[in-house]
Structure formats: structure tokens, C-alpha cells
Prior knowledge:
The chain is mainly α.
Amino acid sequence: xxxxxxxxxxxxxxxxxxxxxxxxxxxxxxxxxxxxxxxxxxxxxxxxxxxxxxxxxxxxxxxxxxxxxxxxxxxxxxxxxxxxxxxxxxxxxxxxxxxxxxxxxxxxxxxxxxxxxxxxxxxxxxxxxxxxxxxxxxxxxxxxxxxxxxxxxxxxxxxxxxxxxxxxxxxxxxxxxx
Length: 178
């Protein structure tokens, strides 16, 4: 019984740490926008939304207690789906950043303008198509651009979240002290 309680506490703590890492990523993106002056492109905004969604999924995964394996597995699937969505958006962004200059899409309208003028489905399609401002690399760390780091972090956090929340805790054999 103590082992199950210990695993439940560790699972909750790990989900909380993962959520805090996601919030830290979004916080740094906001810091880089408002303090460093790096203006986000539409794909950057979608990446922020995906990472925020991943943080919310991790926070939700903190809620179930021990013995609720079905809920943990449901949250594992949610975390995996949101992480793959974020990784897909970031992967598209990295792809656009590595296109030859003559193949980069032309710059488009701002996200605010598109949201005012187009239906939501068209906005998503246009943003995921990318535009010229999405190809610009303003920031790198260890050779990766910000979308590159979002891709890596989304995949790692998603894999960890799925593994953490999918596993069934091992039952300890009854011991004389219990």
C-alpha cells in the first residue's frame, strides 16, 4: 500500500514538474517577445498554444489519485495527442526555416487580421501553410532555433507524460508488517 501511495505522489509530482516546464517555456517565449523584442510569427503563436495545452493536460493528470488507472491512461492519451500536435506544428515551422530562400512562402497577413477576416478553419490552414516571417531565425541556442527546441521538448515531454501516466503501479506482495 505504501508503494502505491509513493508512486501516486511521484506521478503527481512528475506531472506537476512537467506542467511547470511547459509554463516556463511559454514564459520564456513571452519574455523573448516583450523584453528581447522578438516578434512571434503565426506558427510561433500556435506553438505557444500547443505548449500551454500540454501544460493543462499535465495539470489535469495531477488530479486522479491512486487506483484510477483508467483516468491516468486517458490523460496519457491526452498528453500524447497534445504533444504530437505541438511537435507537428513545430516540425512544420522547422521545415519552413530550412527551405531555400526561393521556396519560402511570401509573407502573409498578421494573425490578428486573419482572425478578424477569415473563418477559423481557414486561419488554421493559412497559418500551417506558413509564410515568409516564419522562415526567419532570430534566436538560436546550441544550434537550434526556438521552434527546434519546441519540437524537441514537445516530443520528450509527451513521451515522458505518456510513459508516466500509462504504467500500472506494481503491487507489493503482502508483507508481515503491513
